[in-house]
Amino acid sequence: MADSDLDRGMNSLGNSKKRYSAFSLARNAMSYHQNWQQAWRHAEPKSEYDVIIVGGGGHGLATAYYLASVHGLTNIAVIEKGWLGGGNTGRNTTIIRSNYLWDESAAIYEHAMKLWEGLSQDLNFNIMFSQRGVLTIAHSEHELKEMSRRVHAIRLNGIDSEVLNPAEIKKFIPTINIDQTIRYPVMGGFLQKRGGTARHDAVAWGYARAADDLGVDIIQNCEVTGFRRRGSKLVGVETTKGFIKAKKVGCVTAGHSSVMAEMAGIHLPLASRPLQALVSEPIKPILDTVIMSNAVHMYISQSDKGEMVMGAGVDKYNSYAQRGSWPVPQHMIAAAVELFPFLSRLRMLRHWGGIVDTCPDASPIISKTDIDGLYFNCGWGTGGFKATPGSGHVFADLIANDRPNKIATPYALKRFETGFLIDEHGAAGVAH
Amino acid sequence: MLLIDCPYCGPRNEEEFSCGGEAHIARPLAENPISDAAFGEYLFLRDNTKGVFLERWRHASGCRRWFNAVRDTVSHEFIEIYPMNSKPKSKAGKAAFAANWRRTTDAEAAAQKKGRKS
Lengths: 432, 118
Ligand SMILES: Cc1cc2nc3c(=O)[nH]c(=O)nc-3n(C[C@H](O)[C@H](O)[C@H](O)COP(=O)(O)OP(=O)(O)OC[C@H]3O[C@@H](n4cnc5c(N)ncnc54)[C@H](O)[C@@H]3O)c2cc1C
Ligand SMILES: [Zn+2]
Hints:
The complex is a heterodimer.
Chain A: H1 22-30, E1 48-54, H2 58-69, E2 76-79, E3 95-96, H3 103-116, H4 119-123, E4 134-138, H5 141-156, E5 162-164, H6 166-172, E6 188-192, E7 196-197, H7 200-213, E8 217-219, E9 224-230, E10 233-239, E11 242-251, H8 257-263, E12 271-280, E13 290-293, E14 298-302, E15 308-314, H9 327-339, E16 348-358, E17 365-368, E18 374-378, H10 388-401, H11 415-418, H12 427-430
Parallel strand pairs in A: 1-2, 1-11, 2-8, 4-13, 11-18
Antiparallel strand pairs in A: 3-7, 4-6, 5-6, 9-10, 10-11, 12-15, 12-16, 13-14, 14-15, 17-18
Chain B: E1 3-6, E2 10-13, E3 18-22, H1 36-43, E4 52-58, E5 66-72, E6 78-82, H2 91-99, H3 106-113
Antiparallel strand pairs in B: 1-2, 3-4, 4-5, 5-6
The structure holds flavin-adenine dinucleotide (FAD) and zinc ion.
């Protein structure tokens, strides 16, 4: 299980920033919200940093924040080729849960859950964390049995989890169709009440603002194009804004991790695939929880704006085009309409894809490499948003101390040589 | 929706196909023992090119036969389709084949020793 000595980092926001509060909201209303302080500086690269984080998604920004707040490093830059959170962080369907099968997974995802539970306060930024519950549905006898095994394993790790029968599910979600004659009937499910959602952009922005407050340079529109090293020691990165020296570099580039690794001559076990999602027009509140089904590859929740947010499984072939193929949303919508017939009359508003870095055992890679000073945090695939705070927290620790802590140790690249895989392909690993 | 040209049945909807991932991964034979690291590389590490990629496809709900393809992972364009047990002939395909780091691995050397084709 997760270590209990959870160092959340000093809540030091206020070095250079005015704190957000109900009072500051009222005060700024007086000046028509024209005078809000900039949330983070638009930094230009310095010639040298102690640590460079490549990738300004949630995981990269969280890493930078914990490097500064927990480990006291301040000469840090986050380098992002596009805009903050423009990768999978800003494209995901924001499901958060920690009900994984294996102890190694329980440790890292529950570590993240504990950080989520106080993150808005830590960052002085409302990330709209909502523990509305996540219910995973079973559609066959076999799936149901597998589910109870999972629930027991999860509870042994001290994480909340319970099995519901169809009647209990109907009570919990009145709009669901539990008719046993449909193609994939609802036969039961398991619920994590502490699971839920958070606002994805706010997570990126909150970490960026707090990291900036501690002196971290956030450099957008700057692409890392190569690594420079002396022997087996890294000396810096080549970027579209020139060469930048660095003692250590952490790569947190999700779907582009293989591309980054190849620049350093490292091969990763990843496949980059599109993962798609879509939202409907907004409607009045109708669904106050998150429902996922791995068998029919569909999951759904309702955003605070009222849109129904839906997603599916990954596309079947490798791709770096952020769009995805048509059959995937088609199947997903068919499944959604069968489970929630009221959806059939909704119009869809937007549809998009993100490139996710899928790993053979559906678990992430948090690892040193053969190059001194070069670290990778990737392989989160279809389900890394929920891990954002925990991932950043343990990765910062790995970079600062040049050795993995207890939670990160099993996630080293070495596992693909030793065979100690963390196989989360089961019911919990398919989706998000 | 992609239209994929099955070499045996002609152009068909992408839904009829399944993708088998990276092509030309030689399987090391039991009589050619290699290290755990080299075996792990064969088993788990994958070429994940952004651009021209060599991969295997199967016409799963058609003739159910396998074939190879040269495909661009950014534009999704199928540049060439060619039979199993053969190498690409297009310029882009040849270049991608030669550039793959796997060509110089122990696993590939061990597999080639017995004269096995990929
Ligand atoms: C449609 C969809 C739905 C999802 N749903 C869920 C969900 O419900 N729950 C869940 O837990 N997870 C979900 N995920 C997965 C989740 O989004 C990711 O695992 C997570 O956000 C990864 O965060 P990250 O910070 O590592 O990556 P990203 O946010 O992708 O950040 C990586 C950044 O690196 C940058 N970058 C890449 N190359 C370079 C370079 N050379 N130089 C500089 N910068 C570079 C990119 O521009 C990008 O901004 C979903 C993903 C998608 C696409
Ligand atoms: Zn065919």
